[in-house]
Request: fold
Amino acid sequence: MPRVGLIVNDGKDLAINTADLIESRLTAAGLEVARVSSSGGVVGFANPDQHLRSRGYAACVPTSFDAEMALALVLGGDGTVLSAARQTAPIGVPILTINTGHLGFLAEAYLKDLDKALAQVVAGEWTVEERSMLVVSVMRGEQRRWEVLCLNEMALHREPLTSMCHFEIAIGRHAPVDIAADGVILSSPTGSTAYALSAGGPVITPDCPVLQLTPIAAHSLASRALVFSDQEPVTVFPATPERLMMVVDGSAGCYVWPEDRVLVRRSEHPVRFVRLADHEFFQVLRNKLGWGLPHVAKPSNNHADAPL
Reply:
């Protein structure tokens, strides 16, 4: 019997009720359903001195999931998709994202089209688009103190009420650079439309094999976003005496101390998105972020004698 997964944001009633409906329909169609909570991919904030994730990023894969599963349906918003990516990418299971949240930038299907989406799943009428993920590791010497998979970005920044920081950043074989800023963001192409965009970085189409470095509130006009090959690992040394905070995809993170370094590299395990139709990235930008909308003049006030 074919097996499929169901990853649910069980903190939202709409997601739970929709998951009940989907599970019953898929079971009736002869599929075996393994249902888990998306909370398994929410790593949370940890102190590496007290909590060493010895299994690395594979720790997020549910025990009921395996590489033989056809796909997993994900019910929730964009945060749920980020969690589901950690739960499925290490074993290569494709995910069909069904939005029950708000923006739904990473959604493939919506509730109004649920019947059609389920019919395509059962019939096997879908394709897969792979997107790169990052492995974020906190290292002290040769010891891996903490590690997580990342779909959007890693942000390393100062704590509240502390001063501006310096970051020494080495990209592959290139000479290290020093950036003075409140923080730095390292993002994938998928993450270029998230935190990095808010910090002034460019939008990168998902098929580009690159990473992006974006300073947060840089203290120099020369410090601007940089795009470079994702074949180059990146090492960030915190050149500051205070501890820093690292946040990954908004739902994982830890403290980084002056004696630590952060290593970011492209993962060998991409996230695999199920596509029910051709995915038009520019249309998503237009619909979700208003990119490329035509300029519309303000309407006339119909006062012909009004001063110009």
Notes: The radius of gyration is 22 Å.
